[in-house]
Specification:
Layout: E1 2-5, E2 12-17, E3 26-30, H1 37-44, E4 56-57, E5 60-61, H2 67-74, E6 77-80, H3 92-102, H4 107-120, H5 136-148, E7 154-158, H6 166-183, E8 186-191, H7 194-200, E9 203-208, E10 211-217, H8 218-223, H9 228-238, H10 244-249, E11 258-267, H11 275-283, E12 286-297, E13 300-311, H12 313-325, E14 329-332
Parallel strand pairs: 3-8, 3-9, 6-7, 7-8
Antiparallel strand pairs: 1-2, 4-5, 9-10, 11-13, 11-14, 12-13
Helix pairs in contact: 3-4, 3-5, 5-6, 11-12
Length: 335
């Protein structure tokens, strides 16, 4: 039930937003700039205080804590930022140790903790380097290591890969998943890229104008997006069905026949079935595969094809109905 408005009469950043993140999960929040996702994730550790609602973390009512209680609670919540925010005059090891130093942890204990973390993020050989001597990916690894210094149970990721190139992004996402598994973390991340959600998340919530418009398992949201905004996000990853230029080059149907253009989403038991050849053979129609992609989402097979079906109208309709009967999502494409 979180609500947040910036300035009287100003922008509503959160409009009755509610989420629940399961222990050990990787939960993604995706949305365009201004959707409210940064305000939401910063409400978890109260870097932003909501105007109304309740924030419960590991059983604690965050809004009811005094300053000392809030400081203690925050030590259980690590945060990784889009901009690395490293101290330029501190080495890798010193940057990782910095939050422990602020918390008053003794020097020997800080050193031992840094020694434990460096191998987890692959930076043993860089411990004495300064940020200017590191690549962007290495700097973000320092940011992740710093967030883990206090042994948190929850890790918040605020657009942690948006400043990185695609290859480095995949490395950082793989690292986050590995750390989740090894350290039994719960990860809440925000992003404007559905590809990040596909690569790492178990569940996802889509935000628009301060509200959550869709939420569910990543596989379900990808294969059956309900909201137009979600469909646009998904299309950025799996591609649009077919371009107008491709449609213009398709042959016209013969006399007495029709041509119907459809997008078919293959998921579940029928995802590996020879549906196209079966439909063509059993219903006596011609099927032209215009485009197609086979992928895996959250460990489950997934495919999407754009098809042009040619034949007698009743036979084409029967074939498409048969596909739907298999549980496939068959959507007409405007010619």
């Amino acid at each position: 039930g979180l609500r947040k408005r910036f300035a009287a009469g100003g922008t509503v950043a959160l409009d009755d937003v509610s989420i629940e993140v399961a222990q050990g999960g990787i939960f993604g929040i995706v949305g365009r700039s201004g959707a409210g996702k940064s305000t939401l994730i910063r409400s978890v550790n109260l870097l932003e205080r909501p105007d109304a609602g309740r924030v419960e973390v590991l059983g604690a009512d965050m809004l009811a804590l005094d300053e000392a209680g809030l400081r203690a609670a925050r030590r259980g919540i690590g945060m990784v930022f889009q901009h690395f925010n490293l101290h330029t005059r501190r080495t890798v090891a010193e940057n990782i140790a910095f939050p422990l130093e602020i918390a008053g942890v003794p020097r020997a204990e800080r050193a031992a903790r840094v020694a434990d973390i460096l191998p987890l993020v692959g930076l043993e050989a860089k411990r004495d380097n300064y940020p200017a001597q590191l690549s962007g990916g290495e700097q973000q690894r320092v940011g992740i290591a710093r967030a883990l210094a206090s042994r948190p149970r929850i890790l918040l990721s605020d657009e942690a890969t948006s400043a990185l190139d695609p290859e480095t992004t995949q490395e950082i996402l793989a690292l986050l998943r590995e750390l989740r598994d090894r350290l039994d973390l719960t990860v809440l991340l925000i992003t404007h890229e559905m590809g990040v959600v596909k690569a790492i998340c178990d569940r996802v919530a889509v935000m628009y104008a301060g509200r959550i418009i869709e939420e569910g398992r990543v596989f379900d949201v990808f294969t059956r997006p309900a909201h137009a905004t979600t469909r646009r996000f998904v299309a950025e990853v799996i591609g649009h069905a077919v371009t107008p230029g491709t449609v213009a080059r398709l042959p016209a149907p013969r006399d007495g026949e029709e041509r119907r253009l459809v997008q078919v989403v293959f998921a579940g038991p029928a995802s590996t079935r020879a549906v196209v050849s079966e439909a063509s053979r059993d219903f006596g129609i011609d099927i032209n595969i215009i485009s197609g992609r086979v992928d895996e989402i959250a460990g489950e097979p997934f495919g999407v094809m754009a098809l042009a079906a040619y034949g007698a109208p009743d036979r084409v309709a029967a074939a498409l109905g048969w596909m739907r009967g298999l549980g496939l999502d068959v959507t007409e494409i405007a010619p």
